[in-house]
């Protein structure tokens, strides 16, 4: 596989000029899919613009000066995606990667007390040996829950629910069900970046839709395009509707 990617073929959510140069860094395989993540080098050089060129970005990353979810990353092609926490300690910069109404993924500044917190969406789950419940999350993480008769009977952890975890230690802090009355963020589609309260949703078929009441009115989108972020209010304090 080529190490580079033609800029015209780059995912639309990358905020990079397509005519100035021909090639751009291709993200390596990782916790997020290529079409919904940004290589670390591009974030430093093209989005945050805290380095002048790719060689400077590689040096900064190679020196373990950039942390993703509390872990130093030395691969300049590492894919950074939805809800990841990006930190550059030497500069005192802390960001969370979020979708915006501009149809891009952007690093949004967050307070220091939130740098060890991350929301993850449950994509699916299974029962392992010993009746351990394995929750597979949107960023490639797996959370194992020890055998518990109540958990097995009530099935309280469902697909599309969200978990608030600590990073990098991955301690479970809170669980938010995907249900009416809870707040959600649209992470894909034409309403990307919108946040609002779930007022209704379809059940039982593949392309189910959900209706949200936002500041700009009522919107409807696919259920898979939505991530629940809190019950009475968002669990994390950042401006989700920033244009």
In CATH, the topology of the largest domain is named Structural Genomics Hypothetical 15.5 Kd Protein In mrcA-pckA Intergenic Region, Chain A
Overall geometric form: globular
CATH class of the largest domain: Alpha Beta
* Main sheet overview: 5 strands, antiparallel
Report Rg. Answer: 19 Å
Helix fraction, binned, reads: under 10%
Please give the domain count. 3
Structural class: mainly beta
Mean pLDDT: 86
Series of H and E elements: EEEHHEEEEEEEEEHEEEEEEE
Task: Describe the structure in your own words.
The protein folds into 3 domains: 4-113, Structural Genomics Hypothetical 15.5 Kd Protein In mrcA-pckA Intergenic Region, Chain A (Roll); 117-176, Ribosomal protein S4, central domain (OB fold (Dihydrolipoamide Acetyltransferase, E2P), Beta Barrel), CATH 2.40.50; 183-230, SH3 type barrels, CATH 2.30.30.30. Helices cover 9% and strands 37% of the residues. It is built from 3 helices and 19 strands. It has helices spanning 40-47, 54-62, 149-154, and strands at residues 4-6, 23-25, 37-39, 67-68, 71-72, 79-81, 85-88, 93-99, 105-109, 117-127, 133-137, 142-145, 162-166, 172-176, 183-186, 195-201, 209-214, 217-222, 226-230. It has a 5-stranded antiparallel beta sheet with strand order 5-4-7-8-9, with no helix packed on it. Helix 1 (40-47) crosses helix 2. The model has no long low-confidence stretch (mean pLDDT 86).
């Amino acid at each position: 596989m080529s190490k580079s990617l033609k800029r015209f073929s780059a995912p639309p959510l990358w905020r990079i000029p397509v005519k100035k140069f021909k090639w751009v860094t291709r993200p390596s395989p990782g916790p997020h899919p290529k079409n919904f993540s940004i290589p670390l080098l591009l974030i430093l050089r093209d989005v945050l613009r805290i380095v002048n060129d790719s060689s400077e970005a590689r040096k900064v990353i190679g020196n373990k000066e950039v942390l993703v979810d509390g872990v130093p990353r030395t691969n300049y092609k590492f894919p950074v995606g939805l809800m990841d926490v990006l930190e550059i300690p030497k500069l005192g910069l802390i960001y969370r990667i979020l979708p915006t109404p501009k149809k891009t993924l952007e690093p949004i500044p967050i307070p220091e007390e939130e740098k060890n917190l991350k929301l993850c969406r449950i994509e699916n789950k299974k029962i392992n040996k010993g009746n351990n419940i394995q929750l597979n999350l949107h960023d490639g993480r797996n959370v194992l829950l020890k055998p518990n008769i109540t958990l097995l009977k009530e099935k309280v952890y469902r697909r599309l629910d969200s978990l608030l975890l600590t990073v990098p230690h991955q301690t479970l802090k809170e669980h938010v069900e995907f249900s009416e009355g809870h707040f959600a963020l649209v992470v894909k589609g034409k309403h990307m970046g919108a946040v609002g309260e779930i007022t209704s949703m379809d059940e039982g078929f593949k392309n189910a839709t959900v209706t949200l009441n936002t500041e700009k009115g009522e919107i409807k989108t696919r259920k898979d395009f939505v991530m629940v972020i809190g019950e009475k209010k968002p669990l994390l304090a950042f401006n989700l509707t920033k244009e």
